């Protein structure tokens, strides 16, 4: 087998940033690292890329092995390549992020590596540069959610406008005016109003909505512009 002469080898890894929404908070999944160094410490879901494996295939494999999650849409975030980011050997990592409705996937998650959900605004100390990775993923999520309707991936099949507004407020860690928010979302024509209501929050109740899947697919890669100032 031929090799490039005078070139040193280093490791190739993947890290998965899994954002989930439980109806109240936007959270990040972390696991307890299963080997040294830092065995038992909180870590992003990650692992090494096989010799005959793409980064995308490795991310899907690692995610299923460590959490039980399978079939998620994952988008490449960034490549982290600082020479000293891993204290053992030089390791270049490609990070991916995914969005899930926590309640929908709860039964699929296994407990082997003690997965836990933390609020994105109150993360624990993670190993290596994983806090930096998580922060960049939060920035990317806020930027993309202002332009494209991807946050609907975090919601159950039917939801109320207050639930949707709460999700956006969690993502951006700020409040939105109810009237303006509702008008902006409804003007996109992406939502279909249902006949039934959620009456747990108030006597009057709030109508449920669902996403118009055809419009959603057609609009996903067009500009959304819901949150001013995020597309600069």
How would you explain this protein's 3D organization?
The structure is a single chain. The strands form two sheets. Strands 1, 2, 3, 4, 5, 6 and 7 form a seven-stranded mixed sheet that branches. A three-stranded antiparallel sheet has the order 8-10-9. The mean pLDDT is 90. 28% of the residues are buried. It has helices at residues 55-67, 102-105, 130-147, 161-172, 178-187, 213-219, and strands at 11-21, 26-32, 42-43, 45-48, 75-80, 91-101, 116-119, 159-160, 191-198, 206-211. The chain is of the alpha+beta class and 232 residues long.
Helix-strand layout with pairing:
Elements: E1 11-21, E2 26-32, E3 42-43, E4 45-48, H1 55-67, E5 75-80, E6 91-101, H2 102-105, E7 116-119, H3 130-147, E8 159-160, H4 161-172, H5 178-187, E9 191-198, E10 206-211, H6 213-219
Parallel strand pairs: 1-6
Antiparallel strand pairs: 1-2, 1-4, 2-3, 2-7, 5-6, 8-10, 9-10
């Amino acid at each position: 087998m031929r090799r490039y002469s005078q070139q040193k080898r280093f490791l190739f890894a993947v890290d998965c940033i899994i954002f989930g929404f439980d109806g109240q908070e936007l959270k990040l999944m972390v696991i307890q690292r299963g080997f040294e160094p830092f065995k038992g410490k909180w870590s992003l879901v990650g692992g090494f890329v096989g010799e005959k494996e793409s980064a995308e295939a490795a991310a899907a494999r690692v995610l299923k092995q460590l959490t039980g999650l399978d079939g998620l849409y994952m988008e490449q975030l960034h490549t982290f390549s600082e020479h000293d980011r891993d204290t053992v050997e030089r390791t270049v990592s490609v990070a991916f992020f995914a969005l899930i409705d926590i309640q929908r996937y709860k039964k699929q998650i296994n407990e082997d590596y003690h997965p836990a959900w933390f609020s994105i605004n109150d993360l624990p100390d993670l190993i290596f540069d994983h806090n930096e990775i998580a922060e960049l993923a939060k920035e990317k999520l806020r930027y993309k959610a202002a332009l494209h309707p991807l946050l609907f991936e975090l919601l159950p099949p039917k939801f109320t406008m207050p639930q949707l507004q709460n999700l956006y407020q969690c993502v951006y860690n700020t409040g939105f005016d109810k009237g303006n928010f509702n008008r902006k979302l409804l003007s996109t024509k992406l939502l279909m109003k249902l006949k039934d209501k959620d009456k747990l929050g108030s006597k009057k109740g709030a109508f449920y909505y669902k996403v118009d899947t055809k419009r959603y697919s057609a609009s996903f890669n067009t500009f959304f512009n819901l949150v001013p100032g995020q597309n600069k």
